[in-house]
Design brief:
The structure holds 2 protein chains of 2 kinds.
Chain A: H1 3-21, H2 25-47, H3 50-67, H4 77-96, H5 121-136, H6 141-151, H7 157-164, H8 168-190
Chain B: H1 3-16, H2 21-33, H3 35-63, H4 69-78, H5 115-125, H6 130-151, H7 168-201, H8 210-233, H9 237-256, H10 262-274, H11 277-290
Helix pairs in contact in B: 1-2, 1-3, 2-3, 7-8, 7-10, 7-11, 8-9, 9-11
Classes of the chains: A mainly alpha, B mainly alpha.
Chain lengths: 194, 293
Amino acid sequence: MTDGQAAGMRDDVSQLALAARSGDRAAFRELVWMYQKKVFALSYAFFGNREDALDLVQETFLRLYQKLDSYRPGRSFEAWLLQIARNLCIDHVRRSETRLKGRTSGTSVEDMNLPDTRPAAGDRQGDIRDVLNRCLDRLADRQRTVFMMRHFSELRNDEIAAALGISTGTVKSLHFKAVRNLRTLMRPYMGWEG
Amino acid sequence: MSECDRFELEAAAYAEGSLDPEGEARMRIHARTCPDCRRRLAEVEELLAGAAAVRGDIRAVMDTIDWEALPDAITAKAFGGRGPGLEPGIRFRRTRPWINKTGEYATERSRRPFGRQRDLWARLWGLPWGPALAAVLTGIILGAGGMFFLLHPRAVFNGTSSGYFVSGEVIDRAEFQLAKQETLDYLDRSQTLLLDLIQNGRGQPQSLPRAQTIESARALVAKKRYLNSQLESVPLAKAQAICDQIEVLFLELTRIGEDLSPAEAAQIRDYIEKKQLLLKIKLLRSELAGSEV
């Protein structure tokens, strides 16, 4: 997408947001249609299960509807929406402590009975997935969130930065730390030499 | 920075193929000559393959959702009407008490699990001895009322009004005053904490211990949550916007916790300075303190 196209799209989204604010149902539906997958992907990074993520999509857009009056056309709608979603995710995680339950079985990486030798090629990917999920739980919150948003939710660095309210430089730094720490954590279980 | 350090820094981007041609060529040449970095790269590639596998799982989950029907359902809820029928794959759960069945978005204060009590009454009422139960209850209420008036004659209306009357306008003004006081308190406490964080970001010793700083941030996050409901009901949009910016910072701080690195402390200071939070607090405080209520 060229800069001109991006600017055009931003204007369109602003127009939609303003129309939705004045009660245009179709405009609001369009906004939901455009951003529902992004909000779902972001929520999935927090909860790791479909139902909670879907609930959060609904809650985010209902909150958006309530807050449309405070939308300022000059600001990035997407960043604003992702911040609403992210704040709701954090509130939700604090309230319910259901985070990651669907994604992990609750077994710590130390308790896993993983083979020391490399298994057959067909099983290898399943093992990596399992070990990765469990080692992610041992990362610092921000590193884990950035890694999951980047690789699981497929958000760009600037989208992650907008959602977390940090700079893209910080996103890159956190991602680097996450990869480095994951390599260290996964090493004994993957047969990497180190 | 050594070539190996740079390689490690960019290994993930190289494995993902997101480096520019020049950077990619540099990485390729170095990997050819450095066995340690080649091994590092293999590890990163395997790690990212694991992430790609998880991503595949998520895409499979997303494929089970009807993305065309979901916007209609959400729009119907937002606008308070009845939505179209949802397919089984996207049925909203009813375990979330703050979205009620009519699609009304409940406020924080109204999230009460009354539904279970209503179910109990409905079940009791449906039993064969429901009319008898109604008669007994009516008797108890009438009896209690009679006893009250007999034992407390002063409670009976004696023809003179107390003259106590509160208009809606007075209540609105009282609510506004309360919200203003709460906001001023939040701003005062935030200002103290922000000054401490700026000091810390400049490498100067903090006046508060680290644990106490985090605890204060947590308390302010909780206070802001309480404040949200008040700010939504009164015309204090500017105060809300500034308090939201402060809240973002405190949420980050509570997420980082006590192991705040010097680099992170510096970033926090930059955020405070970039957003001019202290100046905004000062202006808002004087504006709120001087406003007529």
